[in-house]
Automatic annotation (TrEMBL), chains A, B:
This is Meso-diaminopimelate D-dehydrogenase. Keywords: Amino-acid biosynthesis, Diaminopimelate biosynthesis, Lysine biosynthesis, NADP, Nucleotide-binding, Oxidoreductase. GO terms for molecular function: diaminopimelate dehydrogenase activity; nucleotide binding. It catalyses: meso-2,6-diaminopimelate + NADP(+) + H2O = (S)-2-amino-6-oxoheptanedioate + NH4(+) + NADPH + H(+). Residues 119-272 form the Meso-diaminopimelate D-dehydrogenase C-terminal domain. GO terms for biological process: diaminopimelate biosynthetic process; lysine biosynthetic process via diaminopimelate. NADP(+) binds at residues 9-12, 33-35, 66-69, 89-91, 118-122. Pathway: Amino-acid biosynthesis; L-lysine biosynthesis via DAP pathway; DL-2,6-diaminopimelate from (S)-tetrahydrodipicolinate: step 1/1.
Length: 323, 323
């Protein structure tokens, strides 16, 4: 049995609680939170304060860290890795090298294991980019995201003055995907690969036209895309746009000789982004416990871990059933 | 530089020769063949007899074995692994455990590394089944092959009395794939997943109707499928059906909570099956040389090997660029 602690309980933490119920070789010790434990509505798990985490050290094999990448994980992962094996889903791309270095040092000093930046992107998509590029070095990789809700872009909309609530969908250009798959060579700009669709609830008295203009011209977030803006009521937003679907495609098109075209495609179609991310974290928690048992201390990413470490099934059976 | 020998030179061996030219960190020592070396039309590589392989031991890091699974590899892989690190594409599913055991023992006794059953199925498809099932344990995996030429089924056609030549295409039922992706629960029989299409050249005086009947009722190969048979001239077969396209899809549909559906799809679309398989073998040859340098002796499969071992790029750069 791998004994797991959930640190932080939002959508991702709840997803981990649900995923653990599907994995009979794993058991949940409890949820650890900065909030008052009695205020946290888990689906059955015991809730504890963060202070209680260290007291339960002997009962925990792996901590799955479910905080955010902006402020939680840069501090939490190195800190908790001093005493525990950890998994996180740190996804601030530019800071991954720095985060890895900090966690690696802590893990090696304290003889723990940490697997960082786990999930689907970074994570499974990274794996697929690596496999595809290693197998077909003469080729090109394109990643498409969606259709799905981007939290970052939705947050950007909600920060606009006059906006009460908002949801943003990232939509891949399926026509471009088809063209790439059929072997067309395209010189793609940002605008060609994805569309953005916004559902916005206005505050009373807000100027819809001005807000629309502010959205479509917002640098980094929307200016480089074709963006649709729809104004809806809060009731409509709540009814139609509060699910968290997502997905995407890693498409690698290569050639092995002259005009011999070879296409590798990996696609996820997810009803729930947080529950799927959580399921990836749980599989890597199993790998984490195994690495710790083997005393392979330090920081890892999905790129470093042999596939078999994710499975509860023994090697001989895996060879017999999956090869 | 990883120094590679190609053992056996058919379509797969030629594919390896082509792939090595795309990988600047790898170099080809030569092609080793049971035929008269001067009769082997390589694309530039020196050709040698099998007897010369051992003489060149000090110049070779990895032998890529390009023989067939029926009779070559069961003998060759253990034999050559006595003196060399090896890669093979052994794909007789039922005999993989036995083959692994034989090669593992030889490799451990002789301090060599062998990666067996490499390619796309077994190989990349096996990997994807493992990742998907480990992440979404409550789910179902279906593998679809094609559209592509099945060598085994084409051989079966050519063994029929009265058949001069033949090519068989395996065709996936795309309607079923779409239904599975949209979450339908299906109770699938063999007949539902694939069609078979045969292009057959008759010998003079052969009875077309009798041969058609013999094909569609052939146990194991065709009886369980809906099979179309087309009679064509040798010229038409040569013109339209001598390419070796293939591909397929590993589709895993899972649920993470109640009705939350999550779909993982991995699809290959290959203009040349042997060239793609060869490219996979070459990437794993790189891994093989690395494992040998680390003195991790024994037999491995793709399930045992961390993704980063396939890449010529250093770990820090991989983290920076791919995560």
């Amino acid at each position: 049995m791998t004994r797991v602690a959930i640190v932080g309980y939002g959508n991702l933490g709840r997803g981990v609680e649900r995923s653990l119920k599907q994995n009979p070789d794993m058991t949940l010790v409890g949820v650890f939170t900065r909030r008052a434990p009695e205020s946290v509505a888990t689906e059955g798990a015991a809730a504890y304060t963060m202070d209680e985490l260290l007291q339960k050290k002997s009962e925990i094999d792996v901590c799955i860290l479910c905080g955010g990448s902006a402020t939680d994980l840069p501090v939490q992962t190195p800190e908790i890795t001093k005493n525990f094996n950890t998994i996180d889903s740190f996804d601030t791309h530019a800071n991954i090298p720095e985060h890895f270095a900090a966690v690696d040092q802590t893990a090696k000093e304290n003889q723990t294991v940490s697997i960082i930046s786990t999930g689907w992107d970074p994570g499974l998509f990274s794996l697929n980019r690596l496999y595809a590029q290693s197998i077909l070095p003469k080729g090109e990789t394109n990643t498409f995201w969606g259709k799905g809700v981007s939290q970052g872009h939705s947050d950007a909309l909600r920060r606009i003055k006059g906006v009460a609530d908002a949801v943003q969908y990232t939509i891949p250009n399926t026509e471009i995907i088809q063209k790439l798959k059929s072997g067309e060579k395209l010189d793609l700009e940002t605008r060609d690969k994805h569309f953005r669709e916004c559902f916005v609830v206005l505050q009373d008295g807000a100027d819809a036209e001005a807000i629309k203009e502010e959205i479509v011209t917002m640098p980094n977030y929307f200016a480089d895309y074709d963006t649709d803006v729809h104004f809806v009521s809060q009731a409509e937003l709540n009814r139609d746009h509060k699910a968290m679907p997502h997905g995407g495609t890693v498409l690698h098109t290569g050639t092995t000789h002259e005009k011999t075209k070879q296409v590798i495609e990996y696609t996820l179609q997810l009803d729930s982004n947080p529950e799927f991310t959580a399921s990836v974290l749980v599989a890597y928690a199993r790998a984490c416990a195994r690495l710790a048992k083997e005393k392979q201390f330090g920081a890892f990413t999905v790129l470093d871990i042999a596939p078999k470490y994710l499975s509860p099934i023994d090697d001989a059976t895996l060879r017999k059933e999956l090869l």
